[in-house]
Amino acid sequence: MSLSIMEIQNLHKTFGNKRNKTTVLNNVSFNVEQGTIHGLLGNNGAGKTTLIKCIVGLLEPDSGDIYYENVDILKDKDIRTDNISVLLDGGRNLYLYMTVKENIKYFTMLHGITNYQNTDRFKMIVEYLDIYNILNTKVSNLSFGMRQRASLAVALACDFKLIILDEPTTGLDIHYQEELTKLLFKLRKDFNITIIVSSHDMNFISHICDYCTLLDSGNVVKSGSVSEFINIFGNSHYILFYDGELNSENILAIKRDLKHVNINETNKVIEVLWPNEESLTYMMNYLHNQNIFIKEIKKENNLKSSIINLLNNNENMGGVK
Question: Are residues 225 and 287 in the same domain?
């Protein structure tokens, strides 16, 4: 059974003054289990970035507590700086004008480690992350993928136990996303690291995370295992492959009757969430009458459909209070 490495309790954060105050985090509470990969999901403005800034100390919450291994890191800031690292998109947590080796040297010195580049652990990390060829390259000259590896090298060199990645797939092609997925799995296993991933990419989250927390307008809609999201909250997610030509009237009719639908006319694919089989039958009959014929139907229950369903329910209820 996993133990919580981090507990966030009733975290509240507002911006503005008394007359014009905006609540960004509304009593946010959830746990992060040790040795797991935990996803933070939510649309723009959901509160993910503000939450991360509160965890790493870039912002102070108005109220609430953040515990790392049962220590309140809002009061004991040394515990936070010694154990928690954040990897910002594009390597913004590194000094761009310095080389990879200089960054590693600088940040390890901040943690009281001198001559780190001469240690066996340094050599092991360089080999493990396959960054020997970029050690003397300035971070500004690296690709996004290599910047991430450089950031991970700094985190491993400083022996951080909790690593937070903010939008790690931004700017990465499919090949590098697959490499990143494999690398994070290896890091968790080989270094016993806990990882928090904040991302809009639900496919990435579903492939890599054990648990996830869904935020909407500063509220926690749901926190739990990925399998729990899918099994309990998943709508039927259908992919229809059709033959024929949809005109603008057909497209408007489909989008009017179905709230969550995506139509790819180039590949002749309709992707949609249906709450019940009757709606599916109705739509297929409509398409048939328009001389649009369904060649194949695939049905899935996945994290994407679960998140859309949860957010839709939350919107209908006026948000979580």
Answer: no
pLDDT reading at 209 higher than 80: yes
Cα separation, 321 vs 83, in Å, equals 33
Backbone angles phi, psi at 31, to 5 degrees: -115, 150
Taking the alpha carbons of 315, 210, 39, 26 in that order, is the dihedral positive or negative? positive
Helix pair angle (303-316, 226-233), 10° resolution: 60
Query: Are 112 and 192 members of one domain?
Result: yes
* Residue-by-residue DSSP string for 135-162: TTSBGGGS-HHHHHHHHHHHHHHTT-SE
pTM above 0.90, yes or no: no
**Range(s) of the domain holding residue 240:** 236-300
pLDDT tens digits along 37-80: 999 988 778 899 999 999 999 999 999 999 999 999 999 988 99
Please state the φ and ψ torsions of residue 52, each to the nearest 5 degrees: -60, -40
197 contacts 51 by C-beta, under 8 angstroms: no
